[in-house]
Amino acid sequence: MTARLLGTLLLVLPLFCSGCTKPLNSAGRGSSEQYFLVTVNTQIPYWQTAATGFAKAASEMHVQGSVAGPNNYDPKAEQQEFRRVAQLKPAGILVSPADPDLMKADIDAAIAAGIPVITVDTDSSASKRLSFIGTDNYEAGRLGGEIVSRSLQGNGRVAIFTMPEQTNLNERYRGYMEILTAYPHVAVLPVVDIKGDPQIAFDQAQKLIAANTKVDAFVCLDALGGKGVAKALNAAHVTGKTLIAMDSDPETLEWIRKGVIQGTISQRPFTMGFVGLKMLDDLHRHQPKSLNVGWAKDPFAPVPTFVNTGVIWIDKQNLDAFVHALANP
């Protein structure tokens, strides 16, 4: 305890790269007390924000925290990284499974090995993960659907940009559709799969514009699509369209300031990383007899099945206040 209390705390902001990890914090609580955040697209602002929350929790608790995963959207590479860090027998793993079905067996294997695993941002509900920390994506979609329907006044055509293989985005899509299909004069076009690439969002939006496809509202269900669609609309000098984005990427916020994006539904990735590591550390220090007990159906489970971190609607009215809050955490 004396060494722990007097140890020098070194906080290192995460450096992201494919197939590697960088320590965020180390203060001498022992190599066994190492935690990992595993995800894809590690270089995008969304996951950098999550890693900052992860690092803050690590610094407060004097443990080691590392980020692992590919810097692009590559579910198989994420699976390989998860397997690699699980072999290190860490004190716990936060994971955002890009492909929940692909990751299920690996999550279950880690649980069976006594490694606490909590999902963040994207769930793998069929796995034996202990808890899910993130957004109520269905409700976030309903919020977006209500905003779009008001903007269109119940009449128009909507193009939705998403990644259909991701369960969290599908939940947002379900929420949007529940609201939009209640309006008989609102038509939803076939979804556009951006495959985790804002350039694809840009290209597909350009194709719709070039083909003179009637689109009154563009909806982007992930953090990358909004800025891609905004660039396409701006390049073609298209105005008068509703564009709803997701999350608070700096480019997305700048397009709101310029009036191209009407608003964005921002999640709380910092909170996901911060709360997630604290929950893992508590499980590590107060280990239950077994992790493999089906806690989702256990009335005496030591962790909640779902922690809803909430969303924030950002438009021109509260943009400056939001940006100020980001700069002064």
Describe the structure in brief.
The chain is of the alpha/beta class.
The percent range for helix content is 40-55%
Determine and state the CATH class of the largest domain: Alpha Beta
Radius of gyration, in Å, reads 21 Å
- Put simply, the count of helices is 11
Number of domains: 2
Tell how many strands the DSSP assignment holds: 15
Residue runs with pLDDT of under 50 for 5 or more positions: 1-28
Mean pLDDT: 89
Strand fraction = 15-25%
- The fourth-level CATH homologous superfamily of the largest domain is Response regulator
Assembly classification:
single chain
Class based on secondary structure composition and strand pairing:
alpha/beta
Going by CATH, the architecture of the largest domain would be 3-Layer(aba) Sandwich
Summary keywords:
single chain; 329 residues; Rossmann fold; 2 domains; seven-stranded mixed beta sheet; 11 helices; elongated; disordered N terminus
Architecture overview:
- By secondary structure, the protein is an alpha/beta fold.
- It has two domains: 2-135 and 268-309, Rossmann fold; 137-266, Rossmann fold, CATH 3.40.50.2300.
- It is 42% helix and 18% strand.
- It is built from eleven helices and 15 strands.
- The protein has helices at 2-6, 45-61, 75-87, 100-112, 137-152, 167-180, 198-210, 225-235, 250-258, 269-285, 319-327; strands at 10-11, 21-26, 34-38, 64-68, 92-95, 117-120, 132-134, 156-162, 186-188, 192-193, 217-220, 242-246, 263-266, 306-308, 312-314.
- An eight-stranded mixed β-sheet has the order 1-2-4-3-5-6-7-14, sandwiched between helices. Strands 8, 9, 10, 11, 12, 13 and 15 form a seven-stranded mixed β-sheet that branches.
- Helix 3 runs parallel beside helix 4, helix 5 (137-152) packs parallel to helix 6 and helix 7 (198-210) runs parallel beside helix 8.
- The longest helix has 17 residues, at 45-61.
